[in-house]
Known about the structure:
Elements: E1 2-8, H1 13-16, H2 30-43, E2 50-53, H3 57-66, E3 74-76, H4 93-96, H5 100-107, H6 121-138, E4 143-148, H7 150-160, E5 178-184, E6 187-195
Helix pairs in contact: 2-3, 6-7
Amino acid sequence: MTTFLLMRHGLTDWNLHSRIQGQTDTPLAEQGREQCRAWKQTLDRMDFGRILTSPLVRAMETARLCTKGRDLPHATDPGLMEMHWGDWTGRSKEDMRADRDAVREQERRGFNFRPPGGESRRELLWRTLAALERFAEAHPGEQVLVVTHNGVLGALARHMAGMEYLPDEEPPLLPYRLHRIEWRQGGPHPLQLNMEL
């Protein structure tokens, strides 16, 4: 049984301008670095012995700033990268209004939502679960800080809640919070979601 403390990376300029980042490797904005310095105060009081992140720089930078001064082993796994948004990568919310009907049609597909040229939410979920399972099997009995992305957390939380990722479902996670789950009996089990950072 492995315990994971999951969180999203800090803000980037693309977040601040409501642009779809997907797997574009964008660094933290100064506001995101400030978030990390504040989050560090909470994480300093928590007991974890390893760090696992997405290999994207915004996740790795978040982990580094949030654990500054702690000498902890840090691994990355591409399974924890943000969803591949294909042709919609780089577009702003304003730009996406022109494709409103196409977006709504995709949203009605739930976990089968797939941007043109990208991956589905179900594929994102599968690779997320595989990444956590690999790490849990390699590090049983440990508590691990995981820094990843909004899409990863959203898919994982809905999976644990038995949801279908449909537009009328209430999102189970609040933004920029800490979530504690356990990996046991071959799958993730929520312990404590939406903890203040």
